[in-house]
Write a structure and sequence with these properties.
311 residues, alpha/beta, Quinone Oxidoreductase, Chain A, domain 1, Rossmann fold, six-stranded parallel sheet, 8 helices, 16 strands, 23% helix
């Protein structure tokens, strides 16, 4: 099979498409034939060496949408069983259409490949209402937004500022918070106001808001200390990069998002997609062989939604 990897750190040109052995699922794992896989900023960070791994071949890609191709021991085979109350499948069988998150900064193979192996409990049924290219934009970013809201735990009616509200994580956060009855203000570029409001934001700002004006801040744009200042005394802040959380101040409760490969939670998000309550956004598609071009486009910035690679 073909896979996108980096063997030395650098810019988009560092990405290589190489032949690789088709991975075999181990105990409690499933193999997915990849139909589509989103490109995320974390992939660029891996490519640039932010997480280390020098001298090793590093696979790229976290998100995947595709079809179960094989199951390992301790995974039920044949047609998947009925969904439980959380929406997670009781088992997985060859032919099941699924989405999943393959967690890991340092790994030999990622989802930017023709096949990928993931733990069975990282998998959820694919949305019925979206094809693979759109479905592939869901796992990492929606799980990150949901986890950030769990950490902030805003009560219904509380005021929440989401920075980068037009971005992938920010957009999901606006929608999920609005569904909780939270009063959301989106911070983004002026031209994004109509879109951000369409996601459920009650208010919109394109400039720095008033200091201390919000019960909580979800910093999807990774603005750091500036964003902390917009939380009220004793409020809450959640950032997306655990190693870059600003220092606490004024009693603001600080938190950092650690994304987990959680199939049951992913199934809940899929349900919201199928109910029309969560929007999937594709900024563009590229063939796997054009991964360098996709990385170059991501590096240009201004992407709304996610770029998606198709093997």
């Amino acid at each position: 099979m073909r896979a996108a990897v980096v063997t030395s750190f650098g810019g988009p040109e560092s990405v290589r498409i190489v032949p690789a052995e088709v991975p075999e699922p181990g105990e409690g794992e499933v193999r997915i034939k990849v139909a589509a896989a989103a490109l995320n900023p974390v992939d660029a960070a891996v490519r640039e060496g932010v997480f280390g791994g020098a001298g090793r071949t590093l696979g790229l890609g976290w998100d995947v949408a595709g079809v179960v191709d094989a199951v390992g021991p301790e995974v039920s085979a044949g047609p998947a069983g009925p969904a439980d109350a959380a929406g997670a499948a009781a088992g997985w069988g060859v032919g099941d259409e699924v989405v999943a998150l393959q967690y890991g900064m340092i790994k030999p193979l990622g989802t930017h490949a023709e096949y990928v192996v993931v733990p069975a409990d990282a998998v959820a049924r694919a949305p019925r209402t979206a094809r693979a290219v759109r479905a592939a934009t869901l796992p990492l970013n929606a799980l990150a937004a949901a986890r950030a809201l769990d950490l902030l735990d805003p009560a219904p009616g509380a005021s929440l500022l989401v920075t980068g509200a037009a971005g992938a994580v920010g957009g999901y956060a606006v929608q999920l918070a609005a569904l909780r009855g939270v009063k959301v203000t989106g911070l983004a570029r002026q031209g994004d106001e109509e879109f951000v409001r369409s996601l459920g934001a009650a208010d919109f700002v394109s400039r720095e808001p008033t200091a201390g004006g919000f019960d909580a801040v979800l910093d999807a744009a990774v603005l750091g200390g500036r964003a902390v200042s917009w939380a009220r005394d004793g409020g809450a802040y959640a950032g997306l990069i655990p190693t870059a959380v600003p220092a606490a101040e004024r009693g603001v409760r600080m938190a950092a998002v650690e994304v987990a490969a959680d199939g049951a939670r992913l199934a809940e998000l899929v349900r919201l997609v199928d109910e029309g309550r969560l929007t999937l956004r594709v900024a563009g598609t590229y063939a796997l062989d054009d991964a360098v071009k996709a990385h170059a486009r991501l590096a240009e910035g201004g992407v709304r939604g996610r770029l998606v690679l198709v093997p």
